[in-house]
Amino acid sequence: MRTQVAIVGAGPAGLLLGALLHRAGVDAVIVEQRSPDYVLGRIRAGVLEQTTVDLLDQAGVAQRLHAEGLLHGGIELSFAGSLHRIDFKALTGKQVTVYGQTEVTRDLMQARADHGLKTVYEAEHVSVHDFDGAKPQVRFQLGGRNEVIECDFIAGCDGFHGVCRASVASAIEVFERVYPFGWLGLLSETPPVSHELVYSNHPRGFSLCSMRSPTRSRYYLQVPSDDKAERWSDDAFWDELRRRVHPSVAESLVTGPSLEKSIAPLRSFVAEPMRFGRLFLAGDAAHIVPPTGAKGLNLAASDVGYLARALAEHYAGSDEGIDGYSERCLRRIWRAERFSWWFTSLMHDFPETGAFGHKMQMAELGYLVTSQAASTALAENYVGLPLEA
Ligand code: RFL
Ligand code: PHB
Q1: Ligand 2 interacting residues, C-beta cut-off 6 A
Q2: Residue with CA closest to ligand 1 atom 4
Q3: pTM of the model
């Protein structure tokens, strides 16, 4: 097999890169280790920045998003027994779109199928080779047979546990912080409790009320890192959520059986650089943010936005974009890392910082909701910083 760009991983980063390259007339093949159903079964992100929506528009895959996505002009912050709205639209003129990562993935898969573009699913023993030279290769096994893709470039869009970053482990510097807690998430076919997301700082721990549609809700609870989803019955989850939200939210909460329950660990992680000869890392393969800032999927999208443009420019005769790829991505990534770390630190219970730490959080939250400057700083980061030209 021969192609211009071999993409490893069919998550949102790999699929969106494939769609943008197709639009730019660049040939790509995607190699994914899981099945399509497995990829679609992972319940993850829900909030899209306008820059991400713009990239999906550019890729020609945003029709359903525009019809079904929910525009949100703000969020609610709950702490010390009160609720405060941060009005993104008034403060920044911008909004975010609530549309599940599963749906983004489904739309991108459908567009690939409609255009007859090649995705190899259930590839085993995927490995990347010779990206230091002019003729990189991706090798894998399919149904026991050895396969090789010869290409000009490899895009490592294979997530945090992928093979691409592992293949350059000795050439990267890693910056990391692991938090002493995770998020227990629950998805249910129930109407959302509020028309906007509610982020709560509570002495029992953080909680988040989110949604996927007018009939489907997503809720999260801060839990210890060593907790297990199986230990939580649905009733125990709903009881704990009610304790951690504002009484008016608890009163309107509609509960129901869970469709999914899982725990995600919280971590900040950046690997530098993101380019190694003809291999590029993008998305979770290169960086992780704690989900509090809703930035992970959005960063994956901005990475591949830059990468698609750089590769298209290469085929048009300029290597400037390729040469600047890593630095350009990392500037945006570190700002999102900072915001996600800050919002995580502000909203979660950190037992080791004690009563003083809690007082600091309350003072900062009080300042945040009364100062237009502080609210604007939250709003402009949440809706997403602009992409570089
Ligand atoms: P993915 O989605 O992990 O996809 C990587 C793909 O690569 C495949 N793969 C391989 N393929 C071939 N060979 C190998 N050796 C391979 N190894 C792995 C995998 O099977 C997979 O299909 O990474 P990608 O594409 O970079 O996308 C990143 C996003 O998924 C992630 O950042 C977000 O989900 C993070 N995130 C959120 N981001 C937001 O922007 N807004 C949110 O509201 C938000 N909420 C969240 C989140 C992540 C969460 N969890 C579960 C970590 C909420 C949660 C709870
Ligand atoms: C979600 O709906 O899954 C979600 C929303 C906002 C976040 C994280 C996750 O900050």
Answers
A1: 45-47, 197, 210, 218, 291-292, 294
A2: 11
A3: 0.97
> What are φ and ψ of residue 206, in 5° steps?
-65, 150
Mutate to test the pocket of ligand 2, among 97, 196, 207, 218 (most ligand atoms within 8 A of CB): 218
Report the atom number in ligand 1 closest to the C-alpha of 101.
34
The whole-angstrom separation of Cα 372 and Cα 384 is 18
SS3 state of residue 232: coil
Asked whether the predicted pLDDT for residue 304 surpasses 90, the reply is yes
Report domain extents, the chain.
5-72+96-175+266-349
Closest ligand 2 atom, residue 45 Cα: 3
Query: Which residues are CB-contacts of 232 (< 8 A; sequence separation ≥ 6)?
Result: 184, 261
Closest ligand 2 atom to Cα of 294:
10
- List, for residues 320-375, the tens digit of each pLDDT value: 999 999 999 999 999 999 999 999 999 999 989 999 999 999 999 999 999 999 99
Q: Which CATH number fits domain 5-72+96-175+266-349: 3.40.640.10, 3.40.50.300, 3.50.50.60, 3.40.1000.10?
A: 3.50.50.60
Helix (H) or strand (E) holding 189: none
Type of residue at 296: G
Tokens 């393969």 found at: 285
Residue-wise pLDDT for 359-368, tens only, equals 999 999 999 9
Residue 386 has a CB neighbour count (10 Å cut-off) of 12
Q: Ligand 1 within 6 A of 33 CB?
A: yes
CA 286 vs. chain centroid, Å, equals 12
Q: Ligand 1 pocket: which of 53, 157, 158 to mutate (most atoms <8 Å of CB)?
A: 158
pLDDT at 43 over 90: no
| Ligand 2 center to 2 CA (angstroms) | 39
Q: Which residues are catalytic?
A: 72, 199, 291, 295, 382
Q: What is the pLDDT of residue 30?
A: 98
Alpha-carbon span 311 to 320, nearest angstrom: 10
